[in-house]
Amino acid sequence: VQLQASGGGLVQAGGSLRLSCAASGGTFGNYGAAWFRQAPGKEREFVSVIRASGGSTHYADSVKGRFTMSRDRARNTVYLQMNNLKPEDTAVYYCAAGRVISSSLRYVGAYDYWGQGTQVTVSS
């Protein structure tokens, strides 16, 4: 599976962005998909995940209520709608996919496939 992330950019605090992650080359619909982010000098951290079956979503506490993840199975694409962005949301955002189990949804190592990352910069 190849993943292509897009949609990042520069936005003022309080603004919105929508990230997209398009998949090709495999049965993307059978995989859980997630967004992680990595700020300069920090470790990559979990942002959100959408499960393969049922489509339930889970979010990091830091983005809960502001970010919404969704999946379009017909387009083999997942999205991350980010509202009320804050300067601390500034990071490179990566999409990931894999056959993850419930106890591993938030762990970088649980995912087999990664996109190239897209930069999100939020100015104050």
Give an overview of the whole structure.
- The protein has 124 residues and is an all-beta fold.
- Helix content is 0%, strand content 49%.
- It has no helices and eleven strands.
- The protein has strands at 2-6, 9-12, 17-24, 32-38, 45-50, 57-59, 67-72, 77-82, 91-98, 113-114, 118-123.
- Strands 2, 4, 5, 6, 9, 10 and 11 form a seven-stranded mixed beta sheet that branches.
- A hairpin with a 6-residue loop joins strand 5 (45-50) and strand 6.
- The N and C termini lie far apart (37 Å).
Summary tags:
124 residues; mainly beta; 4-stranded antiparallel β-sheet; 11 strands; 0% helix
Mean residue pLDDT:
95
| % residues in beta strands | over 45%
Roughly how many Å is the radius of gyration?
13 Å
Helix content: under 10%
Which segments are poorly predicted (pLDDT under 50) over 5 or more consecutive residues?
none
Distance between the termini: 37 Å
Shape: globular
H/E series: EEEEEEEEEEE
Question: Which structural class best describes the helix and strand composition?
Answer: mainly beta
Main pleated sheet:
7 strands, mixed
Helix tally?
0
Secondary-structure blueprint:
Layout: E1 2-6, E2 9-12, E3 17-24, E4 32-38, E5 45-50, E6 57-59, E7 67-72, E8 77-82, E9 91-98, E10 113-114, E11 118-123
Parallel strand pairs: 2-11
Antiparallel strand pairs: 1-3, 3-8, 4-5, 4-9, 5-6, 7-8, 9-10, 9-11
Please sum up the structure shown.
It contains no helices and eleven strands. It is an all-beta fold.
